[in-house]
Every structure is written in C-alpha cells, then in structure tokens.
Amino acid sequence: MLDSGFAIAGACTGLVVGLTGVGGGALMTPILLLVFGVSPATAVATDLWFAAITKLVAVPVHHRGGHVDWQVVRRLWMGSLPVALGVVVLVSLGATVSKVDGLTRAIGVVVMVTAVGLLLGPWLNALARGRRITDPERFKRRQPALTVAGGACLGLLVALTSVGAGALGTVMLLALYPLRMTPHRLVATDIAHAIPLAVVAGSGYLVMGLVDGRMLASMLAGSIPAVLAGSLLSRRISPGRLRLALAVVLAGSALKTLGAF
C-alpha cells in the first residue's frame, strides 16, 4: 500500500525537478531525514533510484524540445560514471556506508554547499561570461577537461550522499558554459546527465538491500505526474527565481540537518 506522505513529498520534489532540473537529491534527501526520520543510508539509497526514475520521465519532454546538449552530457559522464562505479564496487564489496556516523553531517554539508552554489550561480555565470568573451580561445580550450573533472566531483558526491547532480551540476555548467547554456538547455542537460549517474551510484546500495521499495513506489506515484507537469511548464517559466527560493529552503534544511537549530 502506498504512503500518502511520501507521495506528497515526491510530487513536490518532482515538480521542482521538472521546472529547474534541481532538487532530486538536494531536496528529497533532507526531507527523508528530517520529516520522515529515515536512516541516512536508506535515504541515500532510495533517493538515488527516485531521482533516476523521476528524471527519466522528464528527459523525453526536454529532448523533443531540442534542449539537451549531448556533447556536454558525454563530457560529464566521462568523469562522473567511472567515479560512481568505483564507489559502487566498494559498497558491493561490503564497505560500511550504512554505518558511517558522519553520513548525516556529510549530507548536510553538501546540501549547504549546494544552497550557496545556487545563490552564487548568477555571479559565477557573469564572471565566466566576462572571461569567455575576453579570452575565448583559452576558455574553450579548457572546457572539456574541466567538464570531465567537474563530472568526477559530482560522481563522488552523488554516490556518497545522493546530493549534487542537479544543483551543483547546474552551477558548474553555468560557470563552464556561460554563453552556451540557456535556461532551458541548462535544465535539460543537467537532467540527462543525472539519470545514468544515479542508476550507477544506486546499484551498490541496491545490492546491499538498502533501497526501501515501498517508500520508493510511494514517492514515484507523486513525482511522475508532477515532473511531467513541471517539464512542460519549464518552457514558459524562467527557473531563476525558483532556484533562488530553493536555495533558501536548502540552506534551512542543511542547518537543520547539521543540528544548528
């Protein structure tokens, strides 16, 4: 039987993901920890599969609109997937991820970094735009390697905490591709990158039996229709203000997760 509380949480998160490409892990994982009292390891494991399936539903809508930048997605995968796979191997071999006392604190730290990144995103984009215009050849020469390196960082964060693929990925893309990433292309590209990353990262947790199937089904029952609605609405709504509001919410949840109040 589905749980209405998890379904409502899934719907809220799915709508935000569809509109902005952000929030799959950064929003849902703190909700699972703070509202529902789910153990950190189960929250990470279940949220990875929740994010993967929810975003999989959204990608066809964005792809039909021609907004996914597949070249950038492939560069990100070159960095993120091997690192995530390394974490999967360690988890599958019995690494004690579920017994790490600091996992909740690590999630809180990553969520706070995510919130700060969203707030600084416009400033970083403006800074990168200036460098891109004044020295275009040097900037473009560094883009591929920096994108792969950034993907590797995202792969590690997502595999350990389920947080970062959307929000931190968005900030990174704004900094690396200030002219290329229009708002809609940014959302679509970020979502496309996150799907296989979440699947790969979640595989080790699935092998260990840490994924809560009933909770996952309940969250997906709410998120799938909501993410479709959000993806369709994203063509008409600028995600900038939504990201600002989300940054404030994430900062509050991070402080709560870290025990600041």
What does this protein look like?
With 261 residues, the chain is an all-alpha fold. It has one domain. It is built from ten helices and no strands. The chain has helices at residues 4-20, 24-34, 40-64, 70-92, 103-134, 136-161, 167-176, 183-207, 213-233, 240-257. Helix 2 packs parallel to helix 10 (240-257), helix 4 packs parallel to helix 6 and helix 5 (103-134) runs antiparallel to helix 10 (240-257). The radius of gyration is 17 Å and the shape is globular. The mean pLDDT is 85.
Got a strand count?
0
Alpha-carbon Rg, integer: 17 Å
**Beta-strand percentage?**
under 5%
Q: How many domains make up the 3D coordinates?
A: 1
Major sheet characteristics:
none
Structural class: mainly alpha
Spans of at least 5 consecutive residues whose pLDDT stays below 50 are none
Oligomer: single chain
**Amount of helix:** over 70%
Q: Give average pLDDT, whole number.
A: 85
Give me the strand/helix succession: HHHHHHHHHH
Distance between the termini: 35 Å
**Mass-distribution shape:** globular
Number of helices: 10
Compact description:
The chain has 10 helices and no strands. It has helices spanning 4-20, 24-34, 40-64, 70-92, 103-134, 136-161, 167-176, 183-207, 213-233, 240-257.
Topology:
Elements: H1 4-20, H2 24-34, H3 40-64, H4 70-92, H5 103-134, H6 136-161, H7 167-176, H8 183-207, H9 213-233, H10 240-257
Helix pairs in contact: 1-2, 1-9, 2-3, 2-5, 2-10, 3-8, 3-9, 4-6, 4-8, 5-6, 5-7, 5-10, 6-7, 6-8
